[in-house]
């Protein structure tokens, strides 16, 4: 080969190397644990705003934590967006997260300041979730129930046998929060006695999205879940109402954490900052009709969301339920004493 051709070949190789790296620098993979439509919109808008090729993989919270554990030595994603924060804390406890304290944490509701001071180095709070029931009013009527359930204890009504659904806590964060909420209200023993009794009325434990769809279709009469999901179904025309249990308002928070050894760390930090912004938090309800409560004090909440002012949030020990050993112990206990005892 002539010297000039060699130089051209070398030039092309270098060009290819640099452009490959430039493309690599413009990437981001998000593990997403919110509704599919929200994952799509959030990731798409981020890509447009920052000219970054962002992709997402959607899974429930427990399922995403299991993926992070399985991929510990070879992480496949850069950031985990959404899902119950207890599982994010558990991921932190297991050493699966990278430190990053977003400056936007300063804009998060002050009532969570203590939690942010303690855990914000690994996990940010992107939204607030309120736990309750969804009811299908037509199905309740068919079952001869004229008064919808008001309290957790009302779900034990024998007329509801086979018509209650809740997600499986092995994959879903929702039911983990429900178990923890009942433990906060009544203590562990009574909470598990209740869950065993409720078993008699539960037709099946499925993914949270399916629990909501089944309620709308009238395949169940009562669902346990985060109540904003029922506001969306009602808006679509389903005969569904949401109920805040009389015993007190259980809740969780939406977590967001950068994954340890993320390949696209700088882009993950950009995403974290943006996802906490007023723009991103309002986009969730304005453009995807999903009504979790924004945590950025400058973000307007949807009129469909329950106002935090009207909530009496129970005292909830995120430190305890965010420990990985406690998470595993409670999920295993539920499996053995509740689901498999069916
Ligand atoms: N985040 C949001 C916004 C949700 O609506 C839900 C469930 O309704 C969750 C997280 C928890 O989802 P999962 O129980 O599938 O983990």
Shape: globular
Low-confidence stretches: 1-23
Gyration radius over CA: 22 Å
| Proportion of helical residues | 40-55%
Instruction: Report the major sheet.
Output: 10 strands, mixed
Q: Kindly state the mean pLDDT as a whole number?
A: 93
Report the sheet-strand fraction. Answer: 15-25%
Hetero ligands? pyridoxal-5'-phosphate
SSE-based structural type? alpha/beta
Distance between the termini: 76 Å
Q: From N to C, what is the helix and strand string?
A: HEHEHEHHEHEHHEHEHEEHHEHH
The tally of helices reads: 14
In total, the number of strands is 10
Would you give an account of this structure?
This protein is of the alpha/beta class. The chain has helices at 3-25, 36-50, 61-70, 85-93, 113-119, 137-142, 173-186, 188-199, 208-217, 228-235, 265-275, 278-288, 318-321, 324-339; strands spanning 27-32, 53-58, 79-84, 123-136, 164-167, 202-206, 222-226, 240-243, 251-258, 293-294. The longest helix is centred in the N-terminal third of the chain and has 23 residues, at 3-25. Residues 1-23 have low confidence and may be disordered. Pyridoxal-5'-phosphate (PLP) is lined by residues 33-35, 60-61, 82-84, 129, 167, 172-174, 208, 225-226, 229, 254, 292. This is Bacterial extracellular solute-binding, family 1 protein. It holds the Pfam family SBP_bac_6. Residues 1-24 form the signal peptide.
């Amino acid at each position: 080969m002539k010297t000039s051709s060699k130089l051209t070949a070398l030039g092309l190789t270098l060009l290819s190397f640099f452009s490959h790296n430039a493309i690599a620098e413009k990437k981001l993979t998000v593990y997403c644990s919110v509704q599919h439509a929200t994952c799509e919109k959030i990731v798409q808008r981020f890509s447009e705003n920052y000219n970054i090729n962002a992709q997402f993989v959607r899974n429930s919270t427990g399922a995403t934590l299991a993926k992070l554990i399985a991929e510990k030595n070879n992480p496949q994603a850069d950031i985990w967006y959404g899902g119950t924060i207890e599982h994010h804390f558990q991921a932190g406890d297991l050493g699966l997260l990278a430190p990053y304290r977003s400056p936007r944490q300063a804009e998060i509701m002050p009532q969570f300041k203590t939690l942010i001071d303690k855990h914000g180095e690994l996990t940010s709070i992107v939204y607030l979730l309120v736990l309750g029931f969804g009811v299908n009013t037509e199905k309740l009527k068919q079952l001869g129930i004229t008064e919808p359930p008001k309290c957790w204890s009302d779900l034990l009504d024998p007329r509801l046998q086979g018509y209650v659904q809740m997600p499986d806590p092995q994959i879903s964060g929702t039911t983990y929060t429900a178990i923890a909420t009942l433990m906060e209200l009544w203590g562990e023993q009574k909470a598990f006695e209740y869950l065993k009794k409720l078993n008699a009325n539960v037709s099946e434990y499925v993914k949270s999205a399916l629990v909501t769809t089944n309620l709308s279709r009238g395949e169940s009469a009562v669902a346990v879940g985060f109540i904003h999901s029922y506001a969306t179904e009602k808006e679509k025309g389903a005969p569904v109402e949401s109920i805040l249990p009389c015993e007190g308002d259980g809740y969780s928070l939406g977590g967001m954490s950068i994954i340890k050894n993320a390949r696209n760390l700088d882009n993950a930090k950009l995403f974290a900052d943006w996802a906490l912004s007023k723009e991103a938090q309002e986009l969730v309800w304005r453009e995807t009709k999903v009504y979790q409560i924004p945590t950025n004090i400058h973000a307007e909440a949807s009129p469909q969301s329950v106002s935090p002012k009207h909530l009496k949030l129970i005292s909830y020990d995120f430190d305890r339920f965010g420990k990985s050993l406690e998470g595993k112990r409670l999920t295993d206990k539920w499996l053995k004493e509740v689901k498999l005892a069916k």
